[in-house]
From TrEMBL:
This is Glycerophosphoryl diester phosphodiesterase. GO terms for molecular function: phosphoric diester hydrolase activity. GO terms for biological process: lipid metabolic process. InterPro entries: GP_PDE_dom, PLC-like_Pdiesterase_TIM-brl. Residues 31-266 form the GP-PDE domain.
Amino acid sequence: MKVMKNVFFTALATVISFFGIKKMTSTTHKMKRIGHRGAAGYCPENTFPSYDRAIEMGADYLEIDVQLSKDGKIVVIHDSLVDRTTDHKGKVSDFTFDELRKMDAGSWFSQKFRGACIPSFAEVLDKYADRVGLLIELKKPALYPGIEKMIAEELKKRNFHTKGDDHIIVQSFETESMKRFHELVPEIPVAILINYPPDTVEIKNIAKYASYLNPKWTVVNKRVIDLIHSNGMKAIAWTVRSRKEAEKLKHYPLDGIVADYLDLIE
């Protein structure tokens, strides 16, 4: 009798264990690891070495920034000025693509990267979009009328609007820009960036056209993330640059974290 009782409880424990594991597995939260401007902590941002390093480190996505050159070419650079990340000075929009291409975009970070160049948007799509997801930020799109249509055309040309799975996400701080992009390519999710705690009304309005509401890490808390999720949107926090910041964000069910150092969010 004692043997039968032991067998019964062993079997019961096995069943409980099985279903417990099954339940835990089915609810496991998959968080995207997103390399900020590539691997900006280790390489000059928004350059091919930076993107390559991020992929080597297991990035799920590359976060990139786009603007327009003087001759209307979409280029990948963060600042509206070239001063900080190249050996030249002036506005991005005051240089042709060929002029931007000749600038040294690596030496400011380290002589090891001397000669790294400013990529075109088309090059980044062709070189990386089949290997990793892309989080594309339109920097101050109001400065570049029509950039939403240009981005949309480049993505549609490569059939990324049919890929699904949020493989491409387009984001900006400017809501009107993202509304325009959503109208042009409703199949590609858009995100609004915020650096302040949003209220309920604002979130509901954004949810009408956006799939993501991406908060700065400093405003992330349970109320904000729950509010975003309850309105049917996902949340990607930006930008982690220290272990302390990474540790804070681990307490919340974020859909992704953007980081200069991807090894902080492993």
